[in-house]
Design goal:
about 180 residues; mainly alpha; 2 strands
Length: about 180
Amino acid sequence: MLKKMLFAAFTLLCMPGFVMAANEKIDPATYLCAEYVSSEAVLQGEPPLFEGLQIDGYASAAVNMDVASPDTLHILLGQAYMWCEKRPTDTVLSVWQQMRATGPVPIGEWNAKTSTCADFAMAQEDASGFIIWLDGYNRRLQNTTKSILNSDEDIQSFIDACLISPKRTMLEVLQEQAK
């Protein structure tokens, strides 16, 4: 039951149009704990899913973990919040990356290296959060600030390119689309 509720919230909050209307892209490498605990979502009583997805993708690439997992994200959101409450000048990434490296290997359907655009086409609602995660993953993997999260148009351009390239991985298409 909790997994279904988390997945529903994960999907709803990560829809491309909603994401850009309510959130902005962050720099996972420099995002401070003070920003995390005072984010708009937290102030509204919700977990900072958008920011968490970006940080988790970024941290995952740094520790060579290719799977995005809503269950892992849920746990890390809470643990990072508790850490950050006590250490507002730390970066969220410092603790998140450590938790990702020492925690269990996540299990999930969405994999940065193998998830294809056909997978996306068949499960677009479930994949919307993965797009945000994958963007963070790619920024760390490529050591770049290039992102598809700059605007609704950039996200839609990625989705359109992915839908016409079903055999390619989502990561390949994202790397081409990041401007």
